Amino acid sequence: MSIVGVGCRATGTDFDHAWFGLDRLAAVGLTPRQRTTLEAAVEALDDSGLGCLATGSQAAVVFGAIGGTNTAHHLSRALDLRGPSLTVDSQRASPLVAVDMGVRLLADESVPFVLAGGVDLTLLPDISDLRLPLPRGAGHEGGDRAGGGAGVCTVLVLQRTGDALRTRTRRYAEIGGPGIGFREARGVDAHIALDDPRRGGSSDSGRGEEPPVLIPVSGSDAVTIHHLALRWAVALGSYRSLREFAAATARLVPEPARAAVIARDGIEAAAQLRALARRIEASTATDRARAPLATPGTGSVTAAPFVTVSGPDVFTPVRERADGGVLLLFPGTGDHPRMGRALAARYPVFAAALTRAVDAVVAVGGPRVWTPRYGFGRNGHVPVTTSANPHPASDHSPPSTATAASSHGADGADAAELDETPCAGDLPDSRTGSGIHGDLRNSGRHDGGVTGIPDGRDGIVSRQISLFVFQYALTALLESWGIHADGVAGHGAGEVAAAVGCGALSLEDGARVAVARARLVARAGGGGAAAVLEATPAEVNQLVTPMSAEVAVAAVDGLAITVSGEPRYVDALVRRAHRRAIFAQRVPAGSDHEPPHLPMVRGRAHELRGELADLTPRQPWWPLYSATRRGAVLRPESPDGSAHDNDTPALRTSPTRTDLGTNPTSKDPRTSPTRTDPRTSPTRTDPNAGQTPAIPSTGLPGDPMGGGPSAAPDPASALRMDGEYWAENVSHAVELAAALDSVVADGFSTVLEVGPTSVLTSAVRERIALRDGVWPVLAADDEAGSLLRTIARLYLEGRTVDWTALGPHTTAPPQRQWRRPDSGDSGSWPRPGFAADGHPPGPVFPEVEIRPEGTYVVAGGLGPQGEAAVRWLLAAGARDVVVLTRTPRPLPARLTGMEDRIVMMRCDCADRADLATALQDIRECGSAVRGVVHASGATRLVAATNLLELTAADPTDFTVLLTSAPGAGGPEAVRELADAQADRRVICVEWEVGPAA
Questions:
Q1: What is the distance between the alpha carbons of residues 16 and 508, in angstroms, rounded to a whole number?
Q2: How many helices and strands in the chain, by DSSP H and E?
Q3: pLDDT tens track for 672-724
Q4: Between the CA of residue 357 and those of 336, 474, 485, 657, what are the distances in Å?
Q5: pLDDT by residue (tens digit) across 616-653?
Q6: Tens digits of per-residue pLDDT, 113-169?
Q7: How far, in Å, CA of 123 to CA of 136, rounded?
Q8: 751, 497 in Cβ contact below 8 A?
Q9: Dist CA 791 CA 796 (whole Å)
């Protein structure tokens, strides 16, 4: 067993009862030892890096009797811990017995970790760098003035060593030998014998330390996040790397209000955190509702569920949380040669999943489409020079002009139209690609201005199999971050990865389907064409029926319907649509995917049905919303083991997945008692909740409900991912619109497009219920950054995120700041330097991080403002304050007893040469100037300017400029000076008001 976290506090009376969900009356009933133990336990959890996994887990709490019997219960209730909650009483040995019982509880595999401890717990040897209890009789002479008795509260976090290695958690020590020992002959108290860890923690291989890095911030409210952001912006400098800081802070116990920033280095992270604080400060200063903002990357104005500041990498708290489920949507196109390179280099779980999927494909006779050295770049992609724009258009970009009418004349005869030569060109696979005109251009490859054009039929096979392999690995990566789906759906070829992702097919069977399906499309031959129409199904039916042997409907994606088939017939259909004032657009030449000739594919679908006749489909872990069967739903088994039909919602009670290579120690929200099924939540008011909606006939050729020539099974019949289903998948229309209708009816609120780039996002946004909750997981031009932005959006929505994916936990996070009551306000944030009555004796200074080893300069003497500034710095933890004054004098009465931390230096700050000499003397003493406060009098502006210019090269964390005292007038110049310092943290503090900039 390993000790992975320690919290150690001297007994005191201060207590943040609101954090633990206790009212003032209940807090009064706790002894000082109980209060201290509760806060020390949370600090131990912060120190362990397991806080992000605590809520809703089966973690246990065991405390030695400390004057009350409900301490363990209070902690379990505050953190929503579901494991044993015990208080043991064995007199002086109570904390020792508590730890012993915690070790025994870890024999139960359902208990992930244990918080155990009490007062006067002795560890031998002491864990370095921690203030642990002294032996009995040492340091207790003074007693406890609060009446709680002498002692120090110590809480340990215990975890099985194997679990600590898997979660890459720092281990202080192991409980070695007999572990627990009682009084020995030489007089040593009962103690815990510790051994140094013999095995080092796992280290990241590859390029996991590369930027960007996601830093989540959570607190009880936006004000708390504001304070944390400012403190963390300063604390960043004391960590060896940005990744180390992020891994430590991300694992804290999550709280209701959430925010996040993404940065590439420490300097950018500090700037982003300060931008976050400024945005929160601005938003809390007004009561008006947040205005709709532009969604990053779209260029349009929507009521987004999050707000970005200073670019798309600062995420402020949201007002409402998403209460619906998460759907993973797998597109059937969007692949490009460089997909997966950045993710495979940074995330071993992604690279391992790619290897498993590729091995499965090779085992069934498919090509090895991915290698660690070349990625996907050498499989079916022949780079050629093109003048086409390599960058995809926005999801909201208008479509290009539709294909013009014939130049052979305007006689309008259909026979003449069919004799015309169609426009040549390649286009995305309409059976697997986007069905909306705005996205057809988004499936292009992006490789430095080079577009990959498929080379023959082998290119079709390689591309479709590559996409399957990539989507399988991306699903595994999302699972490693703790992002678990409530349902899946697929579009065309993407439905294969969806079936594997939800467990309806094994990886081996999924590889069989992907290879056989791709080869059937290749055998059917290319030479097809596609067009997009914005029309009703009935209007499209009238256009397609006369030429149904040569043209077929490929996809119905809402407002847009895609058709494919013989090129000259597709051109004729486009011209007919134009004469009827229907928007129609032939997919232009230069697109990346050659569309199949769907009527030819339909004629050979029986080959796929026979090849997959021995397929062994399974019951899924999550519901699968079929775009092949017009929105029919394949649901998991019911709790009694029977399979649900398509009209009955099912709770997901399947066991935890193991085939995607996820972190085995992360909490699976599918089996968590707090998990709310979006279809059975009692808060839903949808009268159709729990029922698959009626799916109307599209009236399109080939639609079994529309009387078309090619009949398919009733979508209400039991779904099976067998050969019959995949024959329909490759030969019938993809009805994404019907699948989304079922998704909305089941209460989903978030859709993640699991593909290399955005293909279907704009089609999903046509659904009002999903408009603000659909995101592509990746962007082609920034895989690593776009993944983190998606994780940040989900985190702000209130989704569970497993932050162990950020990297190993190697150091402690910044010290937690508890709220302390000032006067009668129990919810106010502590403000160092305040008087006992709760009112500041001078200006209200901002919250800053004080470095005990740094030097802080106060310019302007020890007048009222200077005295207040010195008291503020000392109360915040400063140990070396240098006061620059023209006339040294004795310390004021309020500073009596602090002489050892204050140095008086004669200096006229208005004299630039004198000030430069004084600052150089401070630097030569070996201390870095970490903060500056300017509080001088008549020559305020001149002195402030000198001070800012002469400390520009110092590593200052902040500079505070105080305005004139009441009645002195003229603070505008000081505020303008503070506003002009864009590259430094310069804060203007007004004497009566507080921070103004």
A1: 54
A2: 27, 34
A3: 444 444 444 434 334 333 333 333 444 454 443 343 434 444 544 567 899 99
A4: 18, 11, 20, 16
A5: 999 999 999 999 999 999 998 765 555 554 443 333 33
A6: 999 988 877 665 444 344 443 433 444 333 333 333 356 788 899 999 888 888 888
A7: 12
A8: no
A9: 9
For residues 829 and 259, the model is more confident at 259
The residue written with tokens 């200052």 in the block is: 956
For residue range 408-431, list pLDDT tens digits in order.
Answer: 333 333 433 433 333 333 333 333
Contacts for 239 with CB less than 8 Å, ≥ 6 apart: 245, 248, 266, 811
CA angle at residue 788 from 785 to 792, to 5 degrees?
Answer: 135
Comparing C-alpha atoms, which of 8, 52, 351 is closest to residue 207? 351
Q: Please give the pLDDT value at position 949.
A: 87
Using CA atoms, how far apart are residues 675 and 651, in angstroms rounded to an integer? 10
DSSP assignment of 285-347: T--SPPPPEEPTTT-SEEB-SSEE-SSTTEEEPPSS---SEEEEEE-S----TTTTHHHHHH-
- Cα angle 263, 267, 273; round to 5: 60
Q: Which stretches of 125-198 are DSSP H helices? A: 161-166
* Distance (Å, whole) CA 852 – CA 873: 10
How sure is the predictor about 458, in pLDDT bands with cuts at 50, 70 and 90?
low
Assess contact for 491 and 332: CB atoms under 8 A.
yes
Q: Tell me which amino acid residue 169 is.
A: T
**Vertex 367 angle, CA 365 and 372, to 5°:** 130
| Bridge partners (DSSP) listed for residue 506 | none
Torsion of the alpha carbons at 527, 537, 743 and 653, rounded to the nearest 10: -70
Average pLDDT estimate for 889-906: 82
A 10 A CB-CB count for 456 gives 12
- pTM of the full predicted structure? 0.70
DSSP annotation of 822 reads B
* 547-590: pLDDT as tens digits: 988 899 988 887 889 998 888 999 999 999 999 999 999 887 54
Alpha helices in 545-633 (DSSP H): 567-579, 598-603, 605-611
Query: 870 with 847: CB under 8 angstroms?
Result: no
Structure tokens belonging to residue 785: 């950054």
DSSP E strands, 402-461 = 450-453
**CB within 8 Å of 520: residues ≥ 6 apart:** 601, 604, 605, 607, 608, 730
Cα distances from 638 to residues 24, 398, 648, 765, 976, in angstroms, run 46, 46, 10, 32, 67
Neighbours of 551 (CB within 10 A): 28
What does the chain come to in residues?
Answer: 997
CA gap 865, 867 in Å, rounded: 5
**What is the amino acid identity at position 423?**
C
- Longest CA–CA separation in the chain, Å: 113
Handedness of CA 354, 357, 362, 368 (dihedral sign): negative
DSSP 857-892: EEES-SSHHHHHHHHHHHHTT-S-EEEEESS--PPP
